[in-house]
Fold:
Amino acid sequence: MILGFPKSWSTLSYLTAICFALPLGAICIQALVPDEAVFGHLMQTVLPTYIFNTLALMLFVSLGALLIAVPAAWSVARCDFPGRNWFQWALLLPLAMPAYVVAYVYTDLLDYAGPVQGWLRQVNGWQSPMDYYFPDVRTLGGASVMLALVLFPYIYLLARTAFMEQSPSLLHASRVMGAGPWRSFWRLNLPMARPALAVGAALVAMETAADFATVSYFAVPTLTTAVYDTWLGYGSLAAAAKLSAIILLVVFCLIGAERFARRKQQLFQKQTPITSHERYALSGSKAWLASGYCAVLLLLAFGLPVWVLLGYAWDYFEVSWSQDFWQYSLNSLTIALVVSLITVVFALLLMFVRRCSPRKIDMLPSRLASTGYALPGTVLAIGVLVPLSYLDFAVNDLYAYFDLNGPGLIFSGTLFVLIFAFAIRFAAIAIGSIENSYKQISPSLDMASVTMGMRPGSILTRIHLPLLRSGIFAAILLVFIECMKELPAALLLRPVGFENLATYVYQFVSDEQLEQGALGAIVIVLVGLVPLIYLNRSLEQGN
Structure:
């Protein structure tokens, strides 16, 4: 803290936070606008189905991801088996896969006309669907499986870290008391990892609530698809805002329930990572079972979809390799780079004020600016469009007052709205990354700088920035990748005639022609691998 910290810095941080929190307020205000015609009709007909499907999907995906991730995380963290060193980072790779791409690949493989059912009919002599039963992929259950395959690494990463940081002395004590690996897992490791598992499950549930492309492709009506259909189909912004408010209520209730469940939980342990000789050495069938489980999981969640995409890209390379592909790739890279730089600049401002200001109230802006990450893309689009549309109308009315031709939709109809929405959506990622880096900087450096007569601006540029380089790089990288993958906000807010890789690939998926968009999907996946490699290196250095 710096005594006498200028209030101008605090004022600037509050203005930034207000801009970032603007969509949340806009949704709440717009949701109060009466709209009995559309929303009343939805309440009497399909709204209960939307709510049920959303809650059921969140529950199934969270449980599925837990069941998938926890055994893999415990095996990698607590056991030695063939391939462990490779699986511990390879199991993060599914995070680079867009869920709707995985959904299309498995639908293509498992549908009636796909190779799996075709092979079954050939082997067994079946002639029609009446001769056998095969589960339908395009259902709520199918969507749950697809999302769980893509989202389980969130829980895996947190659980793996929690298992590895559990004190080795507890493991020794359990062995002395005669507890084997299975009993130690149930009685010791799993209960101690509960906070990490709760956070991971909550994160998976929020990502599930925000998903649009997968459930839309599988024709599973949820609140997210309802916002999209109500806005574009019925043309009712007020009804869409009311649906968005319901989604926000679900998300915030989920966050509150997770924190309430852990309100009295305290965990005290010496966080010393275990060494190789302290792990359970698996051999024989147990070792191959652990290796086989991790291998099959990685194959289903990443290997098989990538292999199919590579085959599509090779077969349709001449069609895909076009001027449009290059233009859409350039659009994605440009938007992602601009948003990354903007979010990092504002994150630095907010975290610098939070660190240096002696006023406790100045901690609020960074927290307020982080609320955007809880907004699903379709909800964020509503929250961004409402205030920017009013601003556009105000500017054009001002021009009309002076008998001048207005500039048109300069905010809500240009790339500004897309950049603004992405910056709000992913500011929390940049803030979190820089906050973690700030924790490594001793406050004594700030005190010494003030003693030497340095002003806040000089402290930030000459002292903090050089020490924050790794955190800034990580923030730019993570925000960049998230911008490349973001689809719902881009679909709803993109200017007329503008496409990026995410919307380009989704158009082919929705038209059942992923083969022609496979090259774009591979580019998104390859770019998404970069932060995962960086994250793995950071984890290895930390462990």
About this structure: The chain has 25 helices and two strands. Strands lie at 79-80, 280-281.
